[in-house]
## 1
Amino acid sequence: MRKYIILLITAIMTLTTTVQALQANRPLAGSRARSIEQVLRLRPEEIEIGRAALIISQQWSDEVLGHRYLAKLDYMSDDLAYKIADKGLENSPAAINILNDYLFKQQGYKPIDDADDPDDLFIHTVMDNRRGYCLSLSILYLAIGERLDMPLYGVVVPGHFFVRYDDGQTKFNIETTASGAIVDDEHYLEKFDIPEDIDDSIYMKNLNKRQTLGCFFNNLGNVYFDTGDLDQAELALERSVMINPTLAEARMNLGNVYLQRKMVNDAIHQYQLSARYNPNEPKTYNNMANAYLSRENWREAARLYQKAIDMDPDFIDAYRNLASAYMDGGNYRAAIEQLRIAISIDEQDAINYY
């Protein structure tokens, strides 16, 4: 009996030591940060994604108690550390299976169909409701992974965000909106129409933690823009393009803020940069055309609206906007033709009749 007790104690001590080793590898250099300004002064490897996300949550809502969510992240990662050590999978790609099972099956985290609710961006809401969209679920995934010293990276493509495991030898993509399913590069390249041969393109690359936050600032800027807070929207989007200058979505969204502020030249400049880094996005040309139309340059506006339509023949807003450009030019027959096309696409859209 004494022999078995000694063996049991030895096994427990070995497991505890392994878990403590996993925990000791947590990147805690950013744990002293108390503001997003302090976070941005850190080197990328010093940033703690979970803490940074919760700082932003606290700025969004002063009712968020960040320390409570940090404690929950610690609890989740401690629980996972024991499970991984118990299977002897520390420093192994197979540990991802345990993380996926824990997060999506045991804890019940799931994706949402759309991102209409601005609160779904923030990590505290994701943890409260156990749901989120591609970026917010990925931020949670990365926050847990960094506590376990897993080689995980954020990856952005036009209109989407996912996680990648890359230890230098083994590399695979993790789709957080599909319960952590492994998805190959070809899926993203085809589905999201990723531009090729763009200098310094950010798409499909392993992002460091600072770049991941830059993607978060893009979505944060959109949230503030949609709520009418142009000051915070501008601040977030300017941070996004400062960190990720080739992120086309951030350039386009910053252009929208500038256009709202009547800073037309600045808006056009951002739209041009957006089109340079992702020439495959029709919304960029539609929005750029809006800027030219605001300067009463209806010919250039009409050209850009038509370019957007050529790229997306079902782009109703572009048809409607092209009609406005033709009306400004006095070509009412052409305007009516564009509106009739818009009506043929969606007969229930009352604005087209109006």
Note: Confidence is low (pLDDT under 50) at residues 4-19, 21-25.
## 2
Amino acid sequence: MKILLIFPKWTGDYGILGYFAKKASVWPPLNLAYLAAIAEKNGHEVKIIDGEAEDIPINEMIKHTAMFKPDIIGLTATTPFFHVVVELAKSLKQNFSEIPIVIGGTHITILREKAFAPCFDYAFIGEAEEAWPLFLEKYEKGKDISEIKGILYRDKDKIKFTGEFEPISDIDSIPFPARHLLNSDKYNIGTLQGNKKFTTIMTTRGCPFKCIFCSTKVFGKRIRKRSPRLVVDEMISVISQFNVKHFIISDDTLTLDKNHILELCDIIESEKLNITLDAGTRANLVDEEIISRLSKVGLIRLSFGLESVDPNIRKIMRKEVPLESYEIANKLTNKYNIETLNSCMI
């Protein structure tokens, strides 16, 4: 089958703020690249369109879809641009009523039936890497998909859910993302060390903490780790194929497992990779050993979720990190000349 996966252009909806949103939001859609890699592995032809990176509005997206002639269209969305995806899906339905539209991502995972608009035919709840190939196989053969866990679908006028999905135990089994389907030249980010061509990469999934604002329902609270050797192999592959040497590690909490991250540092060092790294973690989960080792293998920026300094607000949001940890952590990153962000909510 021919599968079209779309990340929509969305920042234009935010007027003058869209300029700033775009500068901070043009990241490779790693979720779509994972699903594309799995579909290609199973013999399907896949195209990814990153509307934000390529500056493709909805009307142009319709033309691209007509040219590709897909059998299935997949969309993804977080909360700030879910309304844009609904608008896009409606336009796609008007023009290609016979093509099923699949939606995934954090917003639909959390709101489920409430967000399952009539323009969508199927929705994947949570991690989709195991359900996706099963779905493609059954859909292609015209078979019932109701036994595949983690899918919302329509049966005439009724919305049905196939049951709770199980988080993937062996995340090493997921193939490397299909970055060859993205234009790597479009992904650049500013740092204190200059503008860098970058990609994102994952070393763990899951987060055990209980901050009330976080979308942990996607990856869950159980921590699953990739082999550090496999992570470095992916880095080497990216450098070789795309000449990309800046990696933003997309783990919820980079330094959650000290041994895991130190082993990753050891392998990066042994391979003599000339790379730079960017990541986020909790301020109470760093120490001098971790920061010095990460700095040595290329860490140039680290983000801490401060959110608020109001003790009552921190208690309400369950931000269980002592405020003094930020002072200690920032002194450490300053010592090793690591650009440090302390993100706050307004």
Note: The mean pLDDT is 94.
## 3
Amino acid sequence: MKHCTFLFTSSTDFLKKIIALTIFFFLFSFSSHAQEEHSTNATGKITGRIIDTVSGQPIEYATISLLTQADNKVVNGATADDKGIFTITEVADGTYTILIYFIGYKTGTQNNIVVSKLNPTPVLGDIKLTGSKTTLKEVTVTAEKSIIENKIDKMIYNADKDITSQTGVALDILKKVPQVSVDIDGNVELQGNSSIRFLINGKPSIIFGSNITEVLQSIPASQIQSIEIITSPGAKYDAQGTGGIINIILKKSTAEGINGNISLSAGTRLENGSLNLNAHHGHFGANAFFSGNAQLNSTTINKMNRSSQDTAFMQTSQLLQNGTSDFTRNGYETGVGIDWEITPKDNFTGSFGYNFFGNNNSGIANRQSIVNDASGATLSNVNDVVNTANKFQEHTIDSGVSLISLLY
């Protein structure tokens, strides 16, 4: 009885193994059949070429994605070669959409691509991509100017950035500019040289035809934007101003009107006077100036007592002289000019000037010449009077017109 039971148990285990193997074989056969059937159906192929819309040149290495048109599900993809040609293989029958991507171009779309037994290898031909233009927003970089800027060919003093330079006149600002010195009389030197050419807004100005010190005292500091110092002028400047160039940049202003200044000084010996008048309307300006000085009559007293001996004749000579001389001097310069700014780079100027200088020197001297012998007796006694007079006058006329076009 026990022996039979053992045999029955062994047969049951074996049967279970047979059934399990049968089920596994069935499932494996079904899976293989399904994969083989799917592989058999996915034999389609889609080809095409990606080109630029404008140039017609192929777009290399663009990315192509294949989507089912029904649910927009990505099922395959490819990359174009160096000639823009792409091929998508193992495509099952169906209706598809392809999307083409490339940097700098809008995304390309091709719909209704049908792969079927009747059309297993659709050839899409040339697919054009349009470039995408991206306009960046304007970027503004803001930085504060320093008071002093050192350029390759010049140094700039930004007066409008110096709060201490908003009062006074141009001479007061020049005292703060490195390499520039201004003495107590208003004379300007650049690196110790007084031969300086002054410009306003990069152009010569007729107002500098008058006394430079007076002109610099007439320009308000609040109207100056910056001062450029050029110690080694280039070829675009003429030879005037061997010591360098000082270019005064004025703030842009539409102010119009008339302005000027009068300066007078008087004393017992010297007298000075000047008038500077400016008028501006639109792009046209005019200027008139007068500057004069005079040295009042001054008297100089001359006295002389000279003795000499002649040992050969044993004589003594004596020369006595008493006299005075009067000296006067006067001079002036005057002129008018116009300044027309035709364009921001074209400027017309005209000027006329008259200069006068003269002096007068006159004198009188009483002379006495006495000759004595060795004993002291007078041999001769001569008295005479000497009158002198010198007069000098000089007149000059200056005129000119110029049209200046700036090429920089």
Note: The two ends are 125 Å apart (CA to CA).
